[in-house]
Amino acid sequence: MTASLATATLNGTARPAHHPVRALPTAGELRRALPLPPGLAERIAGQRQAIRDILDGRDDRLLVVVGPCSIHDPEAALAYARRLAELAPRVEDRLLLVMRVYVEKPRTTVGWKGLAYDPDLDGSGDMATGLELSRRLMRDIAELGLPLATELLQPMLAPYLDDLLTWVAIGARTTESQLHRELASGLPAVVGFKNATSGDIQVALDAMSAAAHPHRHFGLDPEGRPVVQETAGNAHTHLVLRGGHGEPNYQAPHVTAARRALEQAGLTPRLMVDCSHANARKEHRRQGEVMRDVLAQRLAGESALCGLMIESHLHEGKQPLAPGKLRYGVSVTDACLGWETTEQLLLSAAERLRQS
Ligand SMILES: O=C[C@H](O)[C@H](O)COP(=O)(O)O
Ligand SMILES: C=C(OP(=O)(O)O)C(=O)O
Predict the structure, then answer these.
(1) Residue 312 above 90 pLDDT?
(2) Is the C-beta atom of 171 inside 6 A of ligand 2?
(3) Domain residue spans in the chain?
(4) In terms of Cα–Cα distance, which of 228, 220, 231, 229 is closest to 191?
(5) Whole-angstrom Cα distance, residue 100 to residue 90?
(6) Which ligand lies nearest to the CA atom of residue 197 in the structure?
(7) 102 CA distance to ligand 2 centroid (A)?
(8) Among 97, 106, 96, 34, which Cα is nearest to 70's?
């Protein structure tokens, strides 16, 4: 590493001494250290099937992926999960709640990359601990009965976590990547491909077509040996509209255009609206407005709309990443809605759907 990189700072904090190579556990080692308790794999398989049923139109509930923009404090994430797990049965006749447990963050340029990369939030990059905390937290949340969602960014990380995942995002910055399409083609979870940060939806449609195909690609077996990975193809993927370049794409003309584009590409016309990101013009409080518009479209008969995404934490807003000075339950990446607002929005969405 060059001297300039070694002395670079992350959020103003000087980086600790540089270690060129540090060993990590293999996926097999971590999975053996933190195995799924009896019955959990079957429960997760059932949750994946429930989402497939929504995508295939056998279940008319709305899929809602909701939770923090990123996890930086496992304890706060678990407290959030307990609240969500209590709410889920109150709305389950109309909404299938899936918790966002995002342990990797794609950055526009540079910044903190998530719990799996840097659990100490100081640039020290203790990824062995990051992986362990991520898997432990996901297992704890899954044991509460909640289905889990995450974005898979580093393909190598997937085997450490994918037995716990019900829904996976391929993000706006990676939907066009062949590696991520190959990854999606072999995942047991349902996968949502986001439109590009430019707003282009064609890359997500191409990704859905590519992921539906079987692939042979470079991979690692659970013990970390390089292998040729063969995938069967994933028929259960969908588009996620997240807006682009600061402009929303959730309104009826966008949704109709996206549905037609899916149909023309021979893909099942199913899509989710991400109420945050460019759809909220990066103003977290606008998520409620987006959600109400999407519900109105669905109640007006737009059957392609099968899901919503909401960024929400225990407390509203966001805070700068300043270790030692962090406020509990507040996002350190994108601003989130607070719990009370989230709960209110979900209860009223369920009620609106009941009355339809
Ligand atoms: O969802 C989170 C962010 O929008 C995404 O990770 C990009 O963040 P950045 O633009 O702050 O790097
Ligand atoms: C990074 C995210 O979204 P996008 O890929 O749409 O920017 C996210 O949902 O955390």
Answers:
(1) yes
(2) yes
(3) 26-354
(4) 231
(5) 19
(6) 2
(7) 10
(8) 106
